[in-house]
Specification:
four-stranded antiparallel β-sheet; alpha/beta
């Protein structure tokens, strides 16, 4: 089987929309992707057929319970979790991280150390800075090399130590596009600080690659379905042994059973149903365009998800190389990320640039005039922009590809920039 982008695009109604006869080109994917029919159908079914709160005995509540639990099992398969009880739903990654950071804070003592990085979205920095303030903990920073756009794993020895209790990392940068070797970093952290809780932000990696939380050996991993073709929701996986250690902030009638004790209030049921539709879409991709190969320990859904990522990865790599090759040919453009054509495996197709003459906002507006959607600014990666001396100059122009984008769309965007 092979990847068929035309067939994929038929699954996304938004991709066929035009404005004043101009097709929409969605290169704003790092901020949020479009959704396939499977997600829309799940939303519709939930709001019409199963619209009730949970835990009752009548037909709609029983049906909604079943949808919620199937969505939990689906996300466990998507992330490679051992149990659906380790899957926690929430409003978004930021809200989940603030909530979980409060729970983890109860374990910390004055003088303990929290490690954050200069490459992360602020949603994986500010919650920990506030915990450090409230618990009188020290903050240590893991820098990245502004020339290679990567962390130096060897530098961990100078940053992580016996007093380290939390390390917050990102799987992929939402500006630089760098895919960090999280498994290797975590291995170093385990040797240097066995008691540390490792918290991984996978928001930017989840739309572009297979996640296996058990192989990573992290303690928590958080992602946002609306970044991987789903609804505006957040999902957190937590290692059960770690979750069991934490107190949860909840109302008194809520039980102490996992994962519900970390899910405050009534969830967005239609959104969780949409998450199920998202995983069903990936399963469809793997079954129709991939080559599912059963592996011992994987169920059928996990097997199909793996097949989907194999075919998607190859297609996205080609798109990314095409975009970067085009940008590299423009002498006034600087690519803020890995640009070696032989190192595309080290990055996701999120590509940020600056221009010698044009400000990022000027380019973004010119793109918008042609109905090409991109982002500009620091994109909430404040420390990354500061490290690259971009805060005072308007940040960067950020384009982000997804597997529903095409070569012709890439060429069109490059032609606009070339004209400018």
């Amino acid at each position: 089987m092979s990847f068929d982008v035309s067939r994929v695009r038929e699954e996304f109604p938004a991709l066929s929309l035009t404005d004043n006869d101009k097709p929409r080109v969605y290169f704003d994917n790092p901020g949020g992707t479009q959704v396939p029919r499977a997600v829309i159908d799940r939303f519709r079914h939930c709001l019409i057929e199963t619209n009730a709160n949970l835990g009752g005995h009548f037909r709609t509540t029983v049906a909604m319970d079943a949808v919620m639990e199937e969505a939990r099992r689906a996300m466990a398969d998507f992330l490679g979790a051992q149990s659906p009880e380790e899957i926690i739903f929430g409003q978004n990654m930021t809200s989940l991280t603030f909530h979980m950071s409060r729970c983890i804070a109860s374990l910390l003592k004055p003088g303990d150390e929290i490690v954050v990085t200069q490459m992360d979205h602020d949603a994986n920095i500010s919650p920990w800075l506030l915990v450090a303030r409230d618990r009188n903990c020290a903050v240590r920073w893991l820098p990245f090399d502004p020339e290679t756009f990567e962390f130096d794993a060897d530098s961990l020895g100078d940053i992580v130590g016996p007093r380290t209790r939390v390390v917050a990392l990102n799987y992929a940068s939402n500006v630089l596009g760098t895919i960090n070797d999280v498994a290797t970093l975590i291995g170093r952290i385990r040797a240097l600080a066995p008691a540390a809780i490792v918290y991984v932000d996978a928001v930017q990696y989840a739309p572009h690659g297979l996640i296996d939380v058990r192989k990573l050996d992290c303690d928590m991993l958080v992602c946002s379905p609306y970044k991987f073709f789903g609804p505006h929701q957040g999902v957190l996986w937590g290692r059960r042994e770690v979750l069991d250690r934490l107190d949860s902030y909840k109302v008194r009638p809520a039980g102490d059973v996992l994962p519900y004790r970390f899910e405050t209030g009534t969830l967005g049921h239609e959104g969780v149903a949409g998450i199920l539709g998202t995983v069903e879409y990936f399963t469809w991709l793997g079954d129709t365009m991939g080559d599912p190969v059963p592996v011992e320990g994987d169920n059928a859904r996990r097997t199909s998800i793996k097949a989907a990522w194999r075919v998607l990865g190859e297609y996205e790599t080609g798109l990314t190389r095409r975009l970067i090759d085009g940008l590299s040919a423009m002498p006034e453009v600087r690519i803020l990320g890995i640009s070696n054509p032989n190192a595309m495996y080290k990055r996701v197709p999120t590509v940020a640039i600056t221009h010698k003459r044009l400000k990022p906002i000027e380019i973004a507006r010119a793109f918008a005039d042609r109905n090409v959607f991109v982002w500009n600014g620091h994109n909430f990666a404040v420390e990354t922009a500061r490290r690259l001396n971009l805060l005072e100059t308007g940040g960067a122009l950020r384009t982000g590809l997804a597997h529903y984008n095409t070569e012709s769309e890439v060429d069109f965007a490059l032609s606009i920039l070339d004209d400018l």
